[in-house]
Amino acid sequence: MKATVTRQDAYRHAVRIRNHELTLDEPIDEGGTDTGPSPLEMLAGSLAGCVAVTIEMYASRKGWDIGGVEVQCDFTPAERGTPTTFDLVLRLPEGLSDEQVERLTVIAAKCPVHRTLEGEVMFRERVERVSLAG
């Protein structure tokens, strides 16, 4: 998996992933132009989206019609002495049985983004000096 980010202006950046282009920016009160979500907001969106897709795929394989699903993710980044905290709210249809809800809750924690965030993370960084256009 690969994402490439290129500065557009100020804090606005174009993110290219496969054949898709997204915009990242900072809110106006942080010096940006608010033309897109901030990188941290995208992280919350990635986790919420992954949870939603994972439980929908699982339900589909089980033949469960779960209809509309909504996942909300609020998070507080780590500060000195406290870990990053993700608060996830799964909004599932009322008609699901307790067993289905329990199983979907377990499956939600197995989405790839959730597992990546809770696992050990390593960074390999390098600097390349290149001539950048503009």
Descriptive report:
Helix content is 31%, strand content 23%. It has 134 residues and is α+β, with helices and mostly antiparallel strands. The protein has a three-stranded antiparallel beta sheet with strand order 1-2-3, with no helix packed on it. Strand 2 and strand 3 form a beta hairpin. The mean pLDDT is 94.
Question: What is shown here, in short?
Answer:
InterPro entries: KH_dom-like_a/b, OsmC/Ohr_fam, OsmC/Ohrsf. It holds the Pfam family OsmC. By secondary structure, the protein is α+β, with helices and mostly antiparallel strands.
Key terms for this structure?
single chain; 134 residues; alpha+beta; GMP Synthetase, Chain A, domain 3; 2 domains; three-stranded antiparallel β-sheet; 5 strands
Q: Mean pLDDT across all residues, rounded?
A: 94
- What is the CATH topology assignment of the largest domain? GMP Synthetase, Chain A, domain 3
Number of domains: 2
* Tally of individual helices: 3
- First and last CA, distance: 27 Å
